[in-house]
Design brief:
alpha/beta, Enolase-like, domain 1, 384 residues, single chain, 36% helix, TIM Barrel
Length: 384
C-alpha cells in the first residue's frame, strides 16, 4: 500500500475554522486527521503541502518512521506549525492502518482499557448565581467534573482584561460555588495563562482549601522555573500542557512534578505517535491525562481512542453541555460512530477512527480570524 495523495482543508465548520487533512492510498483506503494550531490554519496547510511532496509514494503502515522523518528531516526541527501538521498526518495514518487491519485505532495503541470515556463540561454563564445554576444542571445531566467560569472583564466588549480585578471577583464566585455544590463534584477553572506568578499566588490565597480541584494554565509555560516557583506557593493541583508541541516541552513539567494533570492536545503534540510516549512517561510519575479538546469531531473521536487505551486517564474536555450541543460539528460534513450521553463518550468499535468526512460539503471557505488582542486599562497588551 502506498500513499497517493495528501490534502489539507482549511475550512469554516460550525463556529470556527478547522484544518482537516485527508490521506489517500492506492488500496482505496483513506484516513482523516486534524490540526490543533487554531488561528494559524493557513500556516499549517502550507506545512502539510510541503510534507506531501515526499510522503506521496510512501508506505502508510510505517507511521512511526514517517513521524521521525517529518520531525528530523530538516535542520530546523519542531515548532508548533510543524508538529501541528505532523499531528494531523499521524492521526490520518493511524486511521488508514486501523482500516487496513480492520481494527479500531485504540487496538493499535495497546487495546481498550475502558468502555466509556468520562468528560468534563465548562460553564458558559458569568456571575455566581447564573454559574451555580448552570453547574447544578451539569451535575443533573450526568457530569461529575466541570470547569467553572472566570470573570473575563471586558473581553467581549473592548478587549480589556485587568488581572487583579478578575481574580478577586472569580475567587468570590468559586467560593460560593463550592459551598452550593458540596465537596463531591470535581471543580476547576482555566485562567488561560493570563496571570503572573504573583497574581496566581494571590488568587489561590483568596480561597479556602479545596475550593478547586485543579487550576488550569494560570501563567505562560515558556519558563518552567516560574511554574516551579508558583508550585512552592500553593498546594492547588495544576493542569498544564494544552499548548505543548512535543514530548520535550512536557519534560520539565513531568520530571519536576510541576503538573498534576497533563492537558495534552493530540492535534498539537504530534499525533498518536508522540502522545503515547508522553502518556507512558506521565504514568511513571503518577500524573493523569486530562486532554485538551477544543477542536472538531475528528480531534474528539481520535482523543477518545487515545483515552480508551490510556491507564492514567482522568477526563476529556468536551463542548457538550446540558444547554448546548457541539458547535464545532456539522451533520452534513461528518459521519461518525461516536455516541455521547450523561457526560461520557462510548468507545466506538468501528475500524480506524470511526469517522468519515463528506468532502463535497467542505465548501465553506476559510475565514480570517485573529484572537482578541487583550489590553489592560492603561493600554498595555497582555496575554490572550
Amino acid at each position: 500500500m502506498k500513499i497517493t495523495e495528501v490534502k489539507a482543508f482549511p475550512v469554516w465548520i460550525g463556529m470556527r475554522n478547522q484544518l482537516l487533512v485527508k490521506i489517500e492510498t492506492d488500496a482505496g483506503i483513506h484516513g482523516w486527521g486534524e490540526s490543533g494550531f487554531s488561528g494559524r490554519e493557513q500556516a499549517v496547510a502550507g506545512m502539510v503541502a510541503h510534507f506531501r511532496e515526499w510522503l506521496v509514494g510512501r508506505d502508510p503502515m510505517q507511521r512511526g518512521a514517517l513521524w521521525q522523518e517529518m520531525y528530523r528531516g530538516d535542520y530546523f526541527e519542531g515548532g508548533r506549525t510543524i508538529t501541528a501538521a505532523i499531528s494531523a498526518i499521524d492521526i490520518a495514518l493511524h486511521d488508514i492502518v486501523g482500516k487496513a487491519l480492520d481494527v479500531p485505532v485504540y487496538d493499535l495503541l495497546g487495546g481498550r482499557q475502558r468502555d466509556f470515556v468520562p468528560t468534563f463540561a465548562t460553564t458558559g454563564t458569568r456571575g455566581p448565581e447564573a454559574m451555580i445554576d448552570e453547574a447544578k444542571r451539569i451535575l443533573d445531566a450526568g457530569w461529575d467534573c466541570m470547569r467553572l467560569t472566570t470573570d473575563s472583564m471586558g473581553i467581549g466588549d473592548d478587549n480589556t482584561f485587568e488581572p487583579r480585578v478578575s481574580i478577586a471577583r472569580t475567587a468570590d464566585w468559586l467560593v460560593q460555588a463550592r459551598e452550593a455544590l458540596g465537596n463531591e463534584p470535581v471543580l476547576g477553572v482555566d485562567y488561560h495563562h493570563r496571570l503572573s506568578v504573583a497574581e496566581t499566588a494571590s488568587f489561590c490565597q483568596m480561597m479556602p482549601a479545596h475550593t478547586l480541584d485543579f487550576l488550569e494554565e494560570p501563567i505562560r509555560d515558556e519558563t518552567p522555573e516560574a511554574y516551579e516557583s508558583l508550585r512552592g506557593m500553593t498546594p492547588m493541583p495544576f493542569a498544564i500542557g494544552e499548548e505543548f508541541a512535543s514530548k520535550w516541552q512536557f519534560l520539565p513539567y513531568i520530571e519536576r512534578g510541576i503538573t498534576n494533570y497533563a492537558r495534552l492536545d493530540l492535534c498539537n503534540v504530534g499525533g498518536f505517535t508522540e502522545a503515547m510516549k508522553v502518556i507512558g512517561w506521565a504514568e511513571a510519575h503518577y500524573i493523569d491525562m486530562m486532554p485538551h479538546n477544543p477542536l472538531g469531531p475528528i480531534c474528539t473521536i481520535a482523543t477518545v481512542h487515545m483515552a480508551a487505551a490510556t491507564p492514567n486517564f482522568a477526563w476529556l474536555e468536551t463542548w457538550y453541555g446540558p444547554d448546548r450541543v457541539d458547535r464545532h460539528s456539522d451533520d452534513k460534513v461528518f459521519r461518525t460512530e461516536l455516541k455521547f450521553s450523561e457526560g461520557r463518550f462510548t468507545v466506538p468499535d468501528a475500524p480506524g477512527l470511526g469517522i468519515d468526512v463528506n468532502e463535497d460539503q467542505l465548501n465553506e471557505p476559510f475565514r480570517f480570524w485573529e484572537a482578541p488582542h487583550l489590553h489592560r486599562r492603561d493600554g498595555s497588551y497582555t496575554n490572550w
